[in-house]
Amino acid sequence: MTSFHKHILNTPSELVVDSLKGLAYLNPSIALDEQHRVIYQRNQREGTVALISGGGSGHEPAHASFVGTGILSAAVAGSVFASPNISQIRRAINIVSSSPSNKGVLLVVKNYTGDVLHFGLASEQHRASSQGHKTDVRVVIVGDDVSVGRTQGGLRTRGNDISLQNCRGLAYSGATIDQVESLANMVANNVATFGVPGTKPGSSYLNADELELGMGIHNEPGHTRLRPYPPAKELVATMLESITSTIETDPERGFLSHGLKKDGKDEVVLLVNNLGAVSQLELGVIVKEAIAWLRNKKFIVKRVLSGTYMTSLNMPGYSLTILLLPRGGSPDSKIASATEILDLLDAPSDAPGWIWYSKNDLSHIDVSPAPPFEDLELEERGQVCIRPSNSGAFVAAIERAANALIAAEPEITKQDTIAGDGDAGLTLKAGAEGILRATKDQRIRGVNIISDLRVVSEVVDATMGGTSGALYSIYFSALTSALRRVTEASPETDYANLDVWASAAKEALKALYQYTLARPPSRTLIDPLAAFTLALQSPSSESFPHAVEEARKAAEQTRTLEARAGRGAYVNQQALTESRVPDPGAWGVWIILNALLVR
Fold first, then answer.
1. Which of 5, 118, 218, 546 is an active site residue?
2. Is 218 annotated as catalytic?
3. 0.85 cut: is pTM over it?
4. CATH of domain 381-596
């Protein structure tokens, strides 16, 4: 995972306030106290407990984007990675407690020294002030990061988002401050988080292929380094093992031990949090692996939340949070049952940072694939048949071409990093590997060229993707159709000789021209393909080797051509011609044709 190194801002001193102003524009129901950097609800709900949280900026959407109906009454923003000061926090307390019917204020604080000290001192100063007798201010500290063992001082925090939503939901119901505080403490004692940020090359003490288990959201050291970066499945398993450990299995952690039974009846809520630079594509993999691990270990997954909740600017990494729901009859269930907690979690919120998720029990959801689709056309029932002159040589030639593309991947990738977007080599390799699987599985058998080329077209379409995948697939489909027409027009044609191939190739190129504007010389794969097809039309036993040579010349010529189509057209043309690299797509076509040639 990579990270964007440059930040978009006016000046560093204006960054936080500018961002808060932007947030206030997004949500008309909130307002900004610019001097104290406090975001708050314009209309505080009467007769309820108010919730305040906050901390250093740089963790957005936390905390300011959680201000809104159903979550926070106000949030206090410090400078980047720095706690807000006492006057800021006291201003937030005064704002949310201004209503005569206010039932108190609960400060939900992350377990970082600066936050704990400043929020704690602000609450103490408020109690000592003239307003202290009017508003009951309490503090709940959330420390859920199990990567920090007991001997290191216990829990840091990463994800107090679940705590916030549950507390605010209860507060909105008109509960007393005692009830809201009890719920907050109960949830905080049953939530555990583990994070694995990656690293931006050159900006950390970690190498680019390393990660540190449990590294904090301010780059605090974790407890174990891993190198190389493990697959998602292994990494997720390691994280969840730590989160769900018991005192017996891990004396340093086991923070959920008091309620965790591991008897197949533990009910949990899973939160997958993007620390800033993980793509949605990758986040989906993490969600899938986490649910698979939990199900395999017989946990009952009641809810899954996934998205960007608590970041560290644009840190490449993620965290997993587990909320263990109380069992019936347990001391915690007397504060709130599992059903009540889920109802509070599912309560609607208009806070822009709170991400939609399904309010359904996931324990019964099956995402297994649909039944396979049967393509009757591939069953060769009543199909026209045209044989290769030598079945074994035909399949061998296809495998040679595929292996040649795989071997050429580094070369083509290097070319494409200069002449395109860098993926041409891997795209061709993926198609080649798909073809080899098809020959191994006997889907390509060398019995009927028409059937085999149809399989080639479908495999290429399924495995390559992108523009080149589509062009190859169209070409092979058109080649298949052309061979069928030749066979139907001349039933006496039993096998494909050179004349049959030449005629079919000409028709296939003509069909391809309907879907691309590229014409030679264009610095695209069309150049060697057109040169090959034209040379193949000469009535000579040496026409195939000659045609391959013409394809090579056309591919070589792309080194000096200006790109008129394809990805190369978007690259600086002067730099492209000076680089003297051939077009990667054109080079790939020549690699294939050259491998087909038996010497």
1. 218
2. yes
3. no
4. 1.25.40.340
